Every structure is written in C-alpha cells, then in structure tokens.
Amino acid sequence: MVPMYPYYGYRLRCRQEPITFPPQHQNVQPGLEYLMNPLPISDNPGYRGNGKLAGKIAMITGGDSGIGRAVAIGFAKEGADVAIVYLYEREDAEATKRMVEGYGRNCLLIEGDLRVPAFSAEAVKRTLECYGCLDVIVLNQGVQFPQESILNITDEQLENTYRTNIFPHFYMTKAALPYLKPGSSIISTASVTAYAGAPLLVDYSSTKGAVVSFTRSLSLQLVSKGIRVNAVAPGPIWTPLIVSSYSAEYVTTFGLETPMKRAGQPFELAPTYIYLASEDSSFVTGQVLHVNGGVMTET
User: Fold this and answer.
1) Which of 2, 91, 97, 164 is deepest in the core (most CB within 10 A)?
2) How many CB atoms lie within 10 A of CB 109?
3) Could you tell me if residue 27 is inside a domain?
4) What secondary structure does DSSP assign to 172-199, as a single string?
C-alpha cells in the first residue's frame, strides 16, 4: 500500500499529477527546514526496520535537515546510534535529535564549520568519546549558489562552494580513517548534476563531479582494508537548500523537469543510504546509486 502524506493531497507514486510548491525564499544558506512550506517529509511511517544497522555508530554531516535528517531517522530505525554535524541550524538539529530518540536510539549533536580542517578532527573525537567507535560516515554537507554566467561566480563563491562541498570529504575521512574497521562504510552525497550538468550550477556541479571521483578513487585505496566507499546521486529533492538557493518563482516549478513530474522527498533516499551502510551491500564499493525521479544518466 502506498501511504498518504500531508503533501498537497497527492499520493507519492510513479504515475501522478505534477506537484508544485508555494513561492518561498530564504536568504541564508544552507537554509532552515522548520520555515519551509510544506515541510519536507523525512520519515516514512510505512518503513519498518529489522536491525540492519544494529550496534552501528554513524556520523552524518548536514544531518540536521533534508536528506541528512531522513538518513538519521532511517539509520535509527535500523538500530544505529548517530552523531549529526551541522553548521548553525540548531532548531532543526534538535528536532532531528527528538525524531531519532523517538525510535529508541541516541543522537549526538555537533555544531561547527566543516570548512575548518580541525573541526573534522574535533567532530570525530567527540563521537568517539560519546560512543566509543565509528562505523559509518555519511558526507552530506553542501551549498549551491546559482549563477546564470560563469562570469558571475566570484572567487569568494568558488572557494566557499569547494570548501563546503568537497574539502570536508578529505578532512573527515582523514580524521576518521584510523578508527574505521573492516566492514565500515563511507557514503557521500553526489548529485544528478555531476552527470547531467546544470547551467545555473557550474561550480556546484563540478564539486559533485569531484565527489564521484573521490568515491571511486578512495574505494580502490581502501578496499584492501575492508572499508567500502560509495555515493548516492539524488535528483531534485525538497530540502532547505532549494528554498535558500533559488528565487521564490523558481521554487514553484522545482522538480517538474523529471519524468515523474515532481521533486523527491528526503525519506525516498534514506533506504539507499541504509543499503550502502549495511551488509546488504557487502559486494558494492566505488559505486554511485541514482535516485532521481527517472532522469537518465551515464554512470
């Protein structure tokens, strides 16, 4: 049975009428989920965990909202305790913590700036102090600043996009790697834009291409250690990043370009991360899984 959600009265299914959003914009990235209308759907009440991640400890960057929140909830349903790293979105992070704890798991909140190399080491240290080990890392932080011309991408924007979207992959992996054991998993959030391109997101798309190459290369380096490295490439997903990136007018048609004629909801990605974090994907490394509403990409 396909569950009904309070989302414009539509059922989320493969064949449906186009879904649009009210005009809205937030002036600061990466945005605040509690201000969005409608709120993103982070939890699928029809999903029942069966212990796939029992006893695991997972760290999720950008875990306060959007895809990161949905992953934290999904991991909790499967028995994992989590640490979520976020920049400033404390109210969203507290809400995620309550949701995780509502499923009987623990949630450590870590606030700080991943663009600063030392903070990744601090985040790993705090996670180890709290839980004693670390099994799964989800690298999910990101920003995007649409520009109609590459001439409008300032040096400051370019550096900020790279320092946020790809540099922490190196900082966090270097900080965590000494503590990861065989069977551990590193999962990155890439993007459909790494494959299909995006004329308004030249710098963002290039960082997501870097995430893909990072995933493939690191997987080859770590396979002998029994550590798997994979990524998920979402299509358009209804998250705070969207309303803080685009104009209010653009938001109204967000996601309609997909074959499914709608944006995805964060909960629709969570099972993919669960799969990559669990033993179900024990023969999968160096791969990028596409969850994008039917957009065809060259993998």
Assistant:
1) 164
2) 17
3) no
4) HHHHHGGG--TT-EEEEE--THHHH--T
pLDDT in tens, the chain (299 residues): 334 444 444 445 544 678 899 999 999 989 999 999 999 999 998 999 999 999 999 999 999 999 999 999 999 999 999 999 999 999 999 999 999 999 999 999 999 999 999 999 999 999 999 999 999 999 999 999 999 999 999 999 999 999 999 999 999 999 999 999 999 999 999 999 999 999 999 999 999 999 999 999 999 999 999 999 999 999 999 999 999 999 999 999 999 999 999 999 999 999 999 999 999 999 999 999 999 999 998 76
11 found inside a domain: no
Range of 103's domain?
44-291
Which of the residues 86, 171, 195, 204 is marked catalytic? 204
C-alpha dihedral sign at 170, 202, 242, 288? negative
pTM reported for the whole predicted model: 0.94
Active site residue 88: no
What's the CA angle centered on 295, arms 258 and 39, to 5 degrees?
Answer: 45
Q: Phi and psi dihedrals of 170, rounded to 5? A: -75, -45
Tell me if 21 is assigned to some domain: no
The answer to whether the peptide bond before residue 38 is cis (omega within 30 degrees of 0) is yes
Pick from 140, 283, 276, 285: which is nearest to 216 by CA?
Answer: 285
CATH of the domain at 127: 3.40.50.720
Count of the separate structural domains present in the chain: 1
